[in-house]
Amino acid sequence: MFPASTKTPHKQPRKQSISIGRGTRKKDEDSGTEVGEGTDEWAQSKATVRPPDQLELTDAELKEEFTRILTANNPHAPQNIVRYSFKEGTYKLIGFVNQLAVHYTQVGNLIPKDSDEGRRQHYRDELVADSQESAKVVISETENLEEDEEPKELETEPGSQTDVPAAGAAEKVTEEELMTPKQPKEQKLTNQFNFSERASQTFNNPLRDRECQMEPPPRTNFSATANQWEIYDAYVEELEKQEKTKEKEKAKTPVAKKTGKMAMRKLTSLESQTDDITKVSQAAKIVERMVNQNTYDDVAQDFKYYEDAADEYRDQEGTLLPLWKFQNDKAKHLSVTALCWNPKYRDLFAVGYGSYDFMKQSRGMLLLYSMKNPSFPEYMFSSDSGIMCLDIHVDHPYLVAVGHYDGNVAIYNLKKPHSQPSFRSSAKSGKHTDPVWQVKWQKDDMDQNLNFFSVSSDGRIVSWTLVKSELVHIDVIKLKVEGSTTEVPEGLQLHTVGCGTAFDFHKEIDYLFLVGTEEGKIYKCSKSYSSQFLDTYDAHNMAVDAVSWNPYHTKVFMSCSSDWTVKIWDHTIKTPMFIYDLNSAVGDVAWAPYSSTVFAAVTTDGKEKKGQEVQKGPAVEIAKLDKLLNLVREVKTKT
C-alpha cells in the first residue's frame, strides 16, 4: 500500500470550451447556459422611414389593383429591320426578330461528370479521401494504445520512469511515418540512344467559313410625265397606223389575204409552242464564248507564241500555220468576195459572200465573226444579190457599207436585229448598172451627214450621202478612155467608157484620189473636178486589181494587176519607180502598217495542199500558154 500523498495521477482533467459561429454565443463552464450578445437591439421597436418625395395616396387608391401581362417579347427589339432580296430585287421587311435579351453573362468553369477531365478529378478526389481515412484510422489506433497503457504506468514505482518515454517515442514514430511522404516507385530508365515514343496526336484542322455575296446588277430608274397633248398625239398616231394597215389589207387580193392569214396562224402556233429564249440570249452568248475559248485555247496559244525555227534556213520563203476556221452552213456554194476588220473592235471582222461568175449569180450574205466565238457568226444578213465589196465606218463601227453585183449599194446597221439593210439604193436613186467593185467611207460633209464613195464597171465614181432616211447620190466623175472619141453623122461624139475596178483616197489631201481601170490605166482625180483627170498613168497591160497610197510617204502609191506585176509609183512621175514580177496574176496588195518599205501581195496560183494531185505533162503546159496568148490577143484587139 502506498500513502495517499504519494499517489499522483499521470494526467490532470482538462477544462473544455466550445465556440460556435463568430463568438456570439458561449457555453458557461459552470452552469452550461448560453449567453447571447446584442439582445437589446432585437428588443427595440421597428419604425418605418418614409422618403420626403413619396406620394400621399388615399385608401381607395392604395387598394386599387393594376394588372400587367408579362410576355416573352423584348420591347427594345427593333421592328423595322429590312434586308435586300436578290431574288425579288427589292428591300424586304424581316418578319422574325430575335427577342432574346441577355442580362448577365459569366464564364463558368464547370466540367461535365461524363467527360474525361471530370472522371480524372473524381478519381483524384477519391484517392485523397482514402488517404485521409487511412490517416484517421492510424491516429485512432495510437490513442487506443495510450489508454491501454495508462494503468500499467500507475503501478510502476516512482523511481522507475523508463516506460514513460517509451509511449512518447511510439507516438513520435507514428507521426513521423504519417508526415514522411511515400517514395515513388522506381521507373525503368529509357535508352537515350534508340528510344522511340509511340504516342501520337492528331492535328485538328481549323474550321473555315465559306461565304459568297454577288454584286447586285446595275439598275436605272426611268420616270416621265405626260400631258394631255402627248396622250392625244399618241392616240392619233395609233389610229393612223390602223388606217394604213386597213388600206394595205384592202389592196391585197383574196388569195394573198388567205396566205397571209395562214402564215399568221403558223407564227402564232409556233410562238405558243416554243419558249421565249430572248431573255437568256445574252447569257447564252457569254456561255458559248467561254466554251469556245476553252476549246480553242491551244489555237490561241499558237497565235501568241508560235514561231517556226526552220525559217532561219529558208532564204526567201516562210511557213504559215492555219489557226481558226470560220464557216457557216447557210453560206455554202458561195465565194468569199470581201473581208474587212472592224476599226474599233479588234476581234470582229466582216465577210462578204457572192460569186464572180456571171452565169452563177444567185444570192449573197454578210456575216460578222468574232475571234472569241469561231463556231458561229455574231451577225448574219442575207441579200438578193451577191456582195462584192464592203467597208466599216471608222467613227461608227456599227455601220457597214456594201456593194452588190447588180449595181446597188446598201448600209447595214448592226444595232438593228432585222436582216434588211437600213439604207439601199434603187434604180430611181441612181444605182450603178454594173457590179460595184469597191466602196469607201469618207469624212462627214459640211452638214455633218455620213457619206461614202463607190466605183463600178459602168465608169462612174459616185458619192452617196445619208440625208434623213434616204441615200442621195452625186456623180463625182465619169471614166473615159482617152483617144477613143468617135463622131457620128448626127454630129455627136461617142466616148468609150472606162471600167473602174479600184480606187484609194489620199491620207492627207482630202480631195485627191486614184482610180484603176480594166484597161490598165490609173487616173489621178479630184473631188472638185468632174470633167477631167489631174493625171493619167499607163500602168499595166491588163486590169488594175488594186491601188493603195503609202501610209507614211505622201507621194508614193502602189498598184497591182493581172499582168503578174506589182509597181510602186511617185505620183509626180509617170513612170514606175519599182517593178516586181510575181509570175502569177496579183489579186491584191497592202502596205504594212508598221513600215513604209514593207508590203504584202496575194496571187491567184495559191498553194497546193498536202496530198493534192497536181496535173503535169505537155498538155497542161500547152493549155497554160494558150491561156496567156488569148489574154494578149484580147488586149491587142481592144487597143
TrEMBL record:
A GO CC term attached to the entry: microtubule
WD repeats: 537-570
Bias type Acidic residues, positions: 143-152
Highest taxon of source: Eukaryota
Alphabetized UniProt keyword annotations: Cell projection, Cytoplasm, Cytoskeleton, Dynein, Microtubule, Motor protein, Repeat, WD repeat
Region (Disordered): 1-52, 128-183
Pfam families hit by this protein: WD40 (PF00400)
GO MF annotations in UniProt: dynein heavy chain binding; dynein light chain binding
Chief location category: cytoplasm
SMART domains tied to this protein: WD40
Location(s), subcellular: Cytoplasm, Cytoskeleton, Cilium axoneme
Gene Ontology BP annotations: cilium movement; outer dynein arm assembly
InterPro entries assigned to the protein according to its UniProt record, in alphabetical order: Dynein_IC, WD40/YVTN_repeat-like_dom_sf, WD40_repeat_dom_sf, WD40_rpt
Entry's family note: Belongs to the dynein intermediate chain family.
Name used for this protein in its record: Dynein intermediate chain 1, axonemal isoform X5
Record organism: Sapajus apella (Brown-capped capuchin)
